[in-house]
Amino acid sequence: MKRIVLTDRETLQLEEAPVPAPGDEDVVIRVERAGICGSDAHFYRAEYKGTKFPLVLGHEFAGTVHSVGRKAAGFQPGDRVTAEPGIGCGRCDFCKSGAYNLCRSQDFIGGRPGFPGGFAEYVSVPARMVIPLPQEMDFTTGCLVEPVAVAMHCLGRGKIQKGDTVLILGAGAIGLLIAQAVRWGGAEKIIMSDVAPERLALAEKFGADQVIDSGKEDLIRTIQERYGEGGVDVVYDAASVGPTFSQAVHVVKSGGRVINVGEAAKPVELERDLLGREIELTGSRQYTREDFTKALEVISTGEFPLDQVPIRYYPLSRYTEAFDTALNDKAVMRVMFTPQEA
User: Rounded CA gap, 155 and 163, in Å?
Assistant: First the structure.
């Protein structure tokens, strides 16, 4: 089979490898779609501390069951599936409580050596992490279940209440999906900011009530003039750079909540307003199985307009062009590989 290997910082190559044989408790998936996520870009640039090469990236994928280990019950060849990539140890208190996304010994499909991901024609996954898809669901939608699960977890971490005004900093794929999640969860007004006009246009298309070009406008002043102190209940920082963290703290109401979603590549400074105005700061890490269940539910109802998501497709052989598009084209919300197509 063919697979894309990240051999070093910003160095990819296409290689041939044997189709994996399933372990006793594994399922091998024939990959039909695999999306390039923002975290794949961080791996590509070696921005995560402790990244080890070589890596086969790709934790957003969907396909069909190819083969099943002898102890992996519940799946048959041909079943349409996706997978939850975070693999907890199963022994720590977090795993035992269901919060295995917080496991400190977590492995990750597409993010650790020894756990190759979906940028390949086939990928082996522990059966307990495989998630059945409705047979009528297309593979592109199935591939988007994982980022929608991220948004559903963010919804819970934000403690969204009916009538809330929510500001989302960063109108990339996750920011846009968070907007859909919080609207579904009861938010009344959604404001989105970004520095890329193409992304702001997508934000308007996806239902943002107001967009702010923070490259041209002073975001803090704009929010304070239009909404005043106390006007923004919750801020999601989906960009996670120094300026957005500071902006989030300064525009949220006293006693409000700031949720860090994106993974900052560089340290940010603590803001004293966290103390002085009793701002609640928390993170949102990955998801749990409950979030995948919710993601499938909201997708099935059609309440997330995933058919309007701007997607660019590439075969594995065009990996250089695919990563260039994912890293630089702000008008594309997701780049997906089609591993079974030449």
Answer: 14
